[in-house]
Amino acid sequence: QVQLVESGGGLVQPGGSLRLSCAASGFTLGNYVMYWYRQPPGKEREFVANILGDARSSKIADSVKGRFTGSRDNAKNVVFLQMNSLKPEDTAVYYCTVYINNTNWWGQGTQVTVSS
User: Fold this and answer.
1) What's the CA gap between 29 and 84, in Å, rounded?
2) Residue 46 pairs with which residues in a beta bridge?
3) How do residues 73-109 score in pLDDT, each as one tens digit?
4) Is the pLDDT of residue 57 over 70?
5) How far apart are the C-alpha atoms of 60 and 73, rounded to whole Å?
6) Which of 43-57, 66-80, 100-114 has the lowest mean pLDDT?
7) Partners of 79 in the beta sheet?
8) Alpha-carbon distance 55 to 74, whole Å?
9) How far apart are CA 51 and CA 75, in angstroms?
10) What is the pLDDT, as a whole number, of residue 88?
């Protein structure tokens, strides 16, 4: 059974940093592209980043480019999202997800609140 468990969210002041983690189980992490999405309050879920299986490249949404970095440790079955220079508009529930066998698997999400 595929399982994704996000952690690392919390309350942070503008300009601060957080590192989100997504612990994966039930599949071989290195074989799949992993994604981070977020859902701001009252808005649609939106793409944040993807991290390819070999971890040598990734794509970042324009809204977070230069501030957020996706990475992964396939040996430890963990995916990360390093978030720097956080802004109030980054406030959202952050999810990791993977597409396996025609199914999108999602974690439960972790809340990130950026506020002074």
Assistant:
1) 25
2) 38
3) 999 999 999 999 999 999 999 999 999 999 999 999 9
4) no
5) 18
6) 43-57
7) 22, 72
8) 9
9) 15
10) 97
3-class DSSP string for the chain: CCEEEEECCEEECCCCCEEEEEEEECCCHHHCCEEEEEECCCCCCEEEEEECCCCCCEEECHHHCCCEEEEEEHHHCEEEEEECCCCHHHCEEEEEEEEECCEEEECCCEEEEECC
Give percent of the chain with pLDDT exceeding 90. 92
What amino acid is encoded at 73 in this protein?
Answer: D
CA 112 to CA 115: how far, in whole Å? 10
Beta bridge partners of 4: 24
Six token digits for residue 30 = 């290195």
Residue 38 tokens read as 């977020």
